[in-house]
Write a structure and sequence with these properties.
Blueprint lengths: L4 H32 L2 H12 L12 H4 L1 H40 L2 H6 L7 H9 L8 H25 L4 H9 L11 H30 L4 E7 L8 H6 L3 E3 L6 E2 L19 E6 L6
Antiparallel strand pairs: 1-2, 1-4, 2-3
Helix pairs in contact: 1-4, 1-9, 2-4, 2-8, 4-6, 4-7, 4-9, 6-9, 7-8, 7-9
């Protein structure tokens, strides 16, 4: 049986999901590098502050004033990182809107594209929609504030427990930053890197999903549905496995077609680090 346009769109969407994952991995590395750039300065400020305190006179109430300089370094680091993430989102919005339109233009028969204009979504439109819409319950600026606060709390907890357990300043700093022998992955700051990775990957998958959906909605005279495409491996979540291959209406309602499984946030947004994507399903010649 010959391959249909929708079969080819599905295959291209699967291959495209791999490229999106690679781009996301590169962006994560760039953002973590920005965060890591302040680690040495951050821990130096903490060490300088802790060296001025006698363990016997340490009071929890003094902790806020004690690490004031470290708090400023931490805030500066997150301003830099979350100032760069929108640039990554804008680049991806540009790429994704162009890719989706060219994919349709390249696979649809000439007599279809001659009769139906493919509407173009500008990168600015896709970016504006993505940056103004929440993902996983918050806007990007909300996640920035949360990430900064969580990293500061991890340091505060390390200091509290360190003084209670009678550790030296060097031991407390090592607990916070980790050891060079293990690439500093064994310190409490590693948790902030994992958290940042989840935010970056989810922000980018949210951006790509927004761009795709805008292209689909703008061309609803040709596209009648979207198909959920999940990456099926050992890391695929059960909610995504459940939805793989299911169809939904191409409008904002995303009503289930032929099943009752709800769309919820959609592919790429269903949960943190969601790798699912969507594939357009075109109308038949008869429907057109």
């Amino acid at each position: 049986m010959p391959e249909t346009v929708n079969d080819r769109l599905l295959h291209e969407s699967v291959a495209h999901s791999i490229n999106l994952s690679r781009y996301s991995t590169g962006a994560v590395r760039r953002m973590i590098a920005l965060l890591n750039a302040t680690d040495e300065r951050l821990t130096a400020e903490l060490a300088r502050a802790l060296a001025q305190v006698e363990p016997s006179s340490f009071a929890i109430g003094r902790l806020e004033s004690l690490i004031g300089s470290a708090r400023l370094v931490n805030a500066e680091a997150y301003r830099t990182v979350f100032g760069a993430i929108p640039d990554e989102m804008r680049i991806l919005a540009d790429y994704e809107t162009t890719y989706q339109r060219e994919l349709l233009a390249g696979l649809l028969p000439g007599d279809v594209t001659a009769r139906f204009d493919l509407f173009r979504i500008t990168p600015d439109q896709a970016y504006a929609a993505a940056i103004s819409a929440p993902f996983q319950g918050g806007l990007l600026r909300d996640w920035a504030a949360s990430a900064e606060a969580n990293r500061l709390k991890a340091m505060q907890d390390a200091i509290r427990s360190g003084f209670v357990e009678g550790r030296t300043t060097g031991q407390i700093i090592q607990d916070i930053r980790g050891t060079k022998a293990k690439g500093y992955r064994d310190g409490r700051l590693e948790g902030s890197r994992r958290g940042l990775e989840a935010i970056v990957r989810t922000a980018l998958s949210h951006t790509a999903a927004t761009a795709r959906e805008q292209v689909y909605e703008a061309n609803d005279d040709i596209i009648k549905a979207v198909r959920w495409v999940a990456t099926l491996d050992l890391r695929t979540s059960s909610p995504c496995r459940l939805r793989d291959g299911l169809r939904y209406s191409a409008d904002k309602a995303h009503k289930p077609i032929g099943h009752k499984v709800p769309w919820l946030a959609g592919p790429g947004r269903l949960h943190f680090n969601c790798r699912s994507v969507s594939s357009p399903v075109t109308k038949s010649f008869r429907e057109l």
